[in-house]
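JOB MANIFEST
job_type = single_chain_structure
chain_count = 1
residues = 162
[input]
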Amino acid sequence: MKWKSLDVLINNAGVCFRSVAEQMDAKSELEQMQTNYLGPMMLIRKVLPTMRENGRGKIINVSSAAGLLGMPTMGSYSASKHALEGASESLWHELRPFGINVTVVRTSKSILAEKVSGPFSDFYYYMAKFISMLMGRSDSTSASIAIRIREIIKTSYTLKII
């Protein structure tokens, strides 16, 4: 079956490997950038010709609180989400004249690794507890995020980071 229209792209993939910078391996760092930034950008480039031709479209990029604030043990993840958010803002300016809106949905809860070893394990354990406390203050859930995304799809949002 061939679709006749493409109205919405939701980029919701994400991967996070936590480590202090000194111990982050290049493979994990690259995987985060590929999944969290390069993948969404590739999909955006694929859908833009159709959205432009239609004169409308919505691109929703799911980010993270780490895209706003770099957190200890999350430098590579934060960098990938900062990149996604910066690109989203640029795209909003570029695509608005074509009737295409870009929105960033910033989530804030995550799962923390409990078992850590190595020379920085005490530091990591302390920071993981601190980050967990910060993330636990959020009332966002998978369901509440899905509801927000549905609202964005149904309305005429401009660049909004929620």
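[summary]
The mean pLDDT is 82.
The longest helix spans residues 26-54.
exit_status = 0
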